[in-house]
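Protocol step 4 of 5: obtain the predicted structure for the target chain.
Materials: sequence only (see below). No template structures provided, no constraints applied. The aim of this step is simply to have a reference model before the mutagenesis design in step 5. Sequence pasted as it appears in the construct record:
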Amino acid sequence: MQQGLEKHGLEYRNNLVGQGYDGAAVMSGKHSVCRLLQEIGLESQGDRAVDARGLLAQIDLNFIGLLVMFKKVLGQSKFLSDMLQSPSLDLSAAVSLVDSLLATLQKYRSEAFFEVVWREVEEMAVKCDQSWEKTEKRQPKTNRRLHDYILTTSTGERRVDKNDRENFKRHIFYPVLDSMTGELQRRFSKRNCTIMKGIQALHPQSITFLQEDALFSFAKFFDSNVDYLTSELQQIKRLLDCKEKSGMQRFTTLLEFVVFLEPFKELFLELFRLAKTAIVIP
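Step 4 output (structure tokens):
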């Protein structure tokens, strides 16, 4: 198999190995895979040829459509996924990426964008010698014993939309977009995004460090006294400024900030409590 892939110039290690949402990695080698399977299907080795023909039979328009969708739609989530897994995660920036991704998915859920996707599906189908004209199947008939009766319930027959384009759009493309949108909205609800921004505002390396708006919204979820917190923020900024001028190095982690606040926890009661809360939130 590997020799066959290399024969057709397919860098399978780079093109066929990728994460589930990285459709581009799979699509880049699809033409060579089809050619290889076609050649194997003509071989005299029974099991090998049967397996190849079986795989080719499964590469239909839906399969090609899914690959295109992985590249154009699911690939958009890669930026957010990479940021959320980054050691230097910026939660505030992640919230912005979530909003951007939701807006993109909403834009994609349109007839105009689906036309672009389906055009690419048809072009790839032609390159892979994959026809989208289905063979007409025998139409099912109602049992003769039911001819003299009025049917008020289903007889088990399922009506299938013969239009591949409409079928893919209604049953795969739009449901995937709706599912992704719903899951993003559930995981990154307004409450969760507010908490993420609040945690980021307590990180010393963040550009939003000790930003009042983010911390006030965060504090309300934990019944903090915002009036006390306002005074504490003013005092801690002055204290940090004096310490840095005297030669103290700037903190690099939230934990270091909490350790610094420990001796002053009676003075910065609300801020210290929020910082400890931010550390233990998973």
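Step 4 remarks: The two ends are 45 Å apart (CA to CA). Residues 6 and 38 are 15 Å apart (CA to CA).
Proceed to step 5.
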